[in-house]
Amino acid sequence: MADVIKVLLVDDHQVVRRGLRTFLEVQDDIEVVGEAADGAEGVARAEELRPDVVLMDVKMPVMDGVEALRRLRELDNPARVLIVTSFTEQRTVVPALRAGAAGYVYKDVDPDALAGAIRSVHAGHILLQPEVAGALLSQEESNSGQSRGTSLTEREREVLGLIADGRSNREIARALVLSEKTVKTHVSNILMKLDLADRTQAALWAVRHGVSG
To answer: CA spacing 20 to 30 A to 160: which of 17, 119, 192, 198?
Structure first.
């Protein structure tokens, strides 16, 4: 059997979780490994189950999706988080992406598109609508200008270009014939030098300033 993508559902509405599970369970390459009804439970379940992808609602009791994302990043949990939101909550998407989300889908997303989104973020890609990318770029530009890019070494620019291509640390290591530990060090240095919080912001910076893999 091909690699199966393990998914955790985090949403405070049981009906929503049931609907997502019903659809995803018919996908040959996706397995729902667990559910959680709020962000705090979601973090605990993600640590316990180690899913590949977390489908995360934003507005939840106890702990919202953005705070849950921050906690997962603090715990260095490797799960890719896909935010599930409504159009009216669009203003919450940028904070979620800045907290570490790999992308987002709307709650009325077509089922096949949802499965495609899960596969895409699992493969290391970042899912952004143009208007949200624009908002992120605008904020990033005000915080980190082109001048900071001059402090990057040639190797760091190579790593940054591959991040922009959606490559994981393992894939970057293979492409540049480096160890994953070395790549992780380069990524940390890039984020520090550019004053960025995560790989999403790094990818956007690279696109904005013409750095490619």
So the answer is: 119
